[in-house]
Request: fold
Amino acid sequence: MSGRSLSSRDRLAARRTFLRYLAGTPVLAGTGMLPLLAEKILADELPTELIESAEDALNVFDFEPVAKTRMLPAHYGYTVSGTDGNETLLANREGFKGFRIRVRRLIDAREADTSTSVFGIPWSNPIALAPVGGQAKYHPDAEVGAARAARAGGHTQILSTMTSRGIEEVIAARDEPVWFQLYPTNYWRVAEALVKRAEQAGSPVVAVTVDRSAPRNMETSARYARSDTTDCTACHIPDATPQQRLRNRGVWTGIDLEGVESTQATGLTWEFVDRLKSATSMHVVLKGIVTAEDATMCLQHGVDGIIVSNHGGRSEASGRFHRRKPAGNRRSSGRKNTDPGRWRFSQGYGCFQGTGAGRRRGLHRQALRVGAGGLRAGGRGAGAQPVAGGIPPGHAGGGRDFGCANRQFLH
Reply:
């Protein structure tokens, strides 16, 4: 075979043969890898053609190979990368498969109701767009395009601190207030200025990211960046300082950035939460809570809600899927709560079909967030609207196929 390159069909056949060999060896017995290998083998048996439009997609994964062909390698690599060797990211996907749906019958499924309410605000469906920064790398419309998609699908949008566009412009496109995700930095004056701008724009909720307190190692991102020969100087300042990168970006304009070395807060404590609660009338949500102990602390400090998330495996390198719900039997107000899931939200770890959304919805009954997977689906040449507008392809049935016509069955 030397001197001759394999055709794509031959490479696929060789890959399939190798995977079957691995599946048949005793080396991987008991490692938990055999179901994953079986899935890979099955995937190789299926057609691998690229979809031509959003309407052709059967699930979100159908967009990924299209995005890979349309996005710059460095941008694609950054988007799909987890920490280290993607152990936590993969643990999320594998762990999610362990959840099962308890099916109910004879519930009159002719009418489905996917509505809910969050902080007393009605939502037509429980799906929100998670904060994803720098969306201009996906499409020139950036977060404004995502806002139009959210409006079309009736989804709440959470705007990242690292947005490419200003919050006022995004709210105008969404035609209703969006939530604001906060990277607080180590300087109170910066966090306060960002929150005040969001509050003045009409944002009702600030979601403080608490799971990014240190630099991260992203090997997949680094490998893709090495392969990218694009001249990036048109959009990026070589060796730029944090102040140079942020000065004219989105919500950062006009903010005193002296001394800021990172958007993350290495010194974040519960004292910051107390101070933030006193400084704003917005609902304060903590994004990144994954333990019962921290959930209890949230109750003690009057936090209005939590987002159970490990940043999609892109921040912590625990290698762990946080499948257990944080404990707690009181609302943030301290009143007895007969619904311990009432003030939690969920990250869409593995929701790539409607049934997956139903599983996640049952685990965290208030809402489900969809993040970078849905956004990278559009790629550089497509808008977010076809993707976000069709986020719940099997969820539109409201869970009727597994006996859930409305939220009262999600227990």
Remarks:
- Residues 190 and 255 are 7 Å apart (CA to CA).
- The chain has a mean pLDDT of 79.
- The chain has 15 helices and ten strands.
